[in-house]
Every structure is written in structure tokens, then in C-alpha cells.
Design a protein that fits this description.
Blueprint: H1 5-27, H2 29-40, H3 45-48, E1 67-73, E2 83-86, E3 89-92, E4 102-108, E5 115-121, H4 128-135, E6 143-149, H5 158-166, E7 180-186, E8 196-199, E9 216-222
Antiparallel strand pairs: 1-2, 1-9, 2-3, 4-5, 4-6, 6-7, 7-8
Helix pairs in contact: 1-2, 4-5
């Protein structure tokens, strides 16, 4: 016997209903709902909503040509180490086991973006002369990435602060015990660096007991054009 039009429609509705009930019994309500969406041609909006795209070092937008993408994160209290990312490569991090209390510094060739060296300087119990020997001979155009961890200021003296000022820092002159600090400068910079943040250690505003909150800064740094011969 052949079903007429109305009866055929009723049969289809009953079949879908029985399928949903069976799925609900076997797989639970969420799977059944997904199956019903499948039959009805609908999909969960959360499944189709695209995730925001992330670019190098987690930036929300790509850098222009001949620019380096970077992200700096200062240490959190004396527990979580700092991070220095450049062009999607982690230069300094706890995972790489190359962080330390004080100043964490990465030197980068300003012409090519090539990593030259990373080093840490203990500014609580270390010798500031090690930092001075590191900063004095920098070549013109060298990029200097700095992220603090715990205390980055106690052992700083006038000369070390002046050397950072020559790299473009405006905050280092006031940097004090346990302040958070992130900075990108360059040897031979003509103006003050736009890439610097400082969070003052203050009992009234500290996020952690005895320490301010961690700082995070990212951006795009232009490569230095080759010198004309």
C-alpha cells in the first residue's frame, strides 16, 4: 500500500521523533540535540564562530614588513619568571631555564633580528660591574630587551642608569626596589624609546604581597636600515 502525501509527512515526523528519542536514550541530551541540529540543518553558533587569529608572539595584528614582533612579560613576584619573545621565538623564559632574579636581558642585531646573547644580572646580591661590562661595549644599532624579575634596582648605580638612559629609557632613573619593568631600547637611539613600562612597588596598590603586578608589553620594532657605504 502506498502512503498518500499527508500520511507520508506524518511518517517522516514520527521517524525523526523516534530517532531523537533513541539518541537521547543512548547518548544523552547534548548528543541528541546535536543530532537534531544535524537533521534540521542547523549548527551551534559557538561551533561556527571563528576564533580570533593570533600572530607572532601572540600579537593581535601582524607587524609591517621589515619590523620585528615582540612581547615582553616581567616576572610575577619572585615566583613566575619573565618572558621575552621575538618573532615567535622565546628568547628568555623559565621553560628555557635562562631566567634569574634581577634584570633579564636579550641582545638582538638591529639589522637582521638575529639573537646575539641573553644574560641575567642579580640586582639584589650580585655585582653591578658585571652589568656595566655587558652594556658598555654594545655596538651601534643593537636592540636591548629587558624584563625584570623580583628586584631589578637595588644594585643599580648612576653609571648603569645612565647607560640605560642612553639606550632610550626614561623610567630607569626612578626604578626602585621590586618595581616591575619592561623595556626595549637600542644603542645609538636618537629619541626616547616608546617601548617601556614601569609599575611602582607600593603597599597600597601591590597585587602580590610585597610586589606589584606583572607587566606585559608587545609591539613591532622596525629593523635598522643598513648604513650607506
Amino acid at each position: 500500500m502506498r502512503l498518500t502525501g499527508p500520511l507520508r509527512a506524518v511518517a517522516v515526523v514520527l521517524l525523526v521523533g523516534l530517532t531523537w528519542l533513541l539518541a537521547n536514550t543512548l547518548f544523552g541530551g547534548e548528543s541528541a540535540s546535536s543530532m537534531l541540529h544535524f537533521f534540521s540543518g542547523k549548527r551551534n553558533q559557538a561551533e561556527t564562530k571563528p576564533h580570533p587569529r593570533k600572530y607572532k608572539c601572540g600579537l593581535s595584528a601582524p607587524c609591517p614588513p621589515k619590523h620585528l614582533a615582540f612581547r615582553l612579560v616581567s616576572g610575577a613576584a619572585n615566583v613566575i619568571g619573565p618572558k621575552i619573545c621575538l618573532e615567535d621565538k622565546m628568547l628568555v623564559s623559565s621553560v628555557k631555564n635562562n631566567v634569574g632574579r634581577g634584570l633579564n636581558i636579550a641582545l638582538v642585531n638591529g639589522l637582521t633580528g638575529e639573537l646575539l646573547e641573553t644574560k641575567t644580572f642579580d640586582m639584589w646580591a650580585g655585582d653591578v660591574s658585571d652589568l656595566l661590562k655587558f652594556l658598555r661595549p654594545l655596538h651601534e644599532g643593537t636592540l636591548v630587551f629587558v624584563a625584570s624579575f623580583d628586584d631589578a634596582a637595588t644594585k643599580l648605580n648612576d653609571e648603569s642608569r645612565r647607560l640605560f638612559e642612553e639606550l632610550g629609557s626614561t623610567a630607569v632613573k626612578d626604578l626602585a626596589f621590586r618595581d616591575s619593568w619592561v623595556f626595549v631600547g637600542a644603542k645609538g637611539i636618537e629619541n626616547k624609546s616608546p617601548f617601556e613600562q614601569r609599575m611602582k612597588n607600593s603597599k597600597s596598590s601591590n597585587k602580590y604581597e610585597g610586589w606589584p603586578e606583572s607587566l606585559e608589553m608587545d609591539g613591532c620594532i622596525p629593523l635598522r636600515p643598513p648604513l650607506e657605504s
